[in-house]
TrEMBL record:
Xref: Gene3D superfamilies: HAD superfamily/HAD-like, Putative phosphatase, domain 2
Species of provenance: Coprococcus hominis (ex Arizal et al. 2022)
Protein's recorded name: HAD hydrolase-like protein
InterPro entries (alphabetical): HAD-like_hydrolase_sf (IPR050155), HAD-like_sf (IPR036412), HAD_2 (IPR041492), HAD_sf (IPR023214), PGP-like_dom2 (IPR023198)
């Protein structure tokens, strides 16, 4: 059994499509960019936004920074409430806690937003620590968030063995961030990644649903 379970937020714990995509559409509109098919913006869900604005819409570094600010104008007041819970996840948290697992959030989303979302969904009580990125970019990669989370656990309980930790996420960024610390990963296929994406980054486990995720964690 994995004692410490790190979970991504968007696309893993929550269904974030409405809030994130609406925020991206709002930001892009400020640059005169219109998008007919919102599903083409799904790659924005997961990685740091400033990177996505540059990669997917060719914004300069300065423009991408401004786009993130526009995005936050929308997200901080509306988007954080446009979230749902992924099927089976709350029941999964209950089972894992009953079996003695400690649950943590490790997200590239700003920590403030992550805490507000989980509180709104009444899920915050399941997690020992909710770790996310910072607005000042001092902690804006998944690896940096995991490092911060590990330090928090060490301060609270002593340094954990990496063999006791599993990272659960729906994108390759979760796998890459966890691998920097020798942490195994579960790629969930109910989010915004794909089996091909996980195979390309050598994700150890794949889960079609929350029940399979639990089975892997409690192996």
């Amino acid at each position: 059994m994995y004692k410490y379970v790190f979970l991504d937020l968007d696309g893993t714990i929550t269904e974030p499509e409405e809030g994130i995509i609406n925020g991206v559409l709002y930001a892009l509109s400020k640059f005169g960019i219109t998008v007919e098919d919102r599903t083409t913006l799904y790659p924005y869900i997961g990685p740091p936004l400033r990177d996505s604005f540059r990669e997917f819409h060719g914004l300069s570094e300065e423009e991408a920074e401004q786009a993130v600010l526009y995005y936050r104008e929308y997200y901080s007041t509306k988007g954080i409430y446009q979230n749902g819970i992924m099927p089976g996840m709350e029941a999964a948290f209950q089972t894992l806690q009953e079996r003695g697992c400690h649950l943590y959030v490790a997200t590239s989303k700003p920590e403030l937003y992550a805490k507000q979302i989980l509180e709104h969904l009444k899920l915050d009580g399941y997690f020992d620590i909710i770790a996310g990125s910072t607005f000042d970019k001092s902690r804006d990669t998944k690896a940096a968030v995991i490092e911060y989370l590990l330090a928090g656990i060490a301060a609270d309980q002593g340094k954990p063995s990496m063999d006791d930790i599993i990272m659960v996420g729906d994108r390759e960024f979760d796998v890459i961030g966890a691998r920097a610390f020798g942490i195994e990963t579960i790629g969930v296929l109910f989010g915004y990644g794909s089996k091909e994406e996980f195979e390309a980054c050598d994700c150890r486990y794949l889960a079609e649903n929350a029940e399979e995720m639990v089975q892997i964690i409690l192996r």
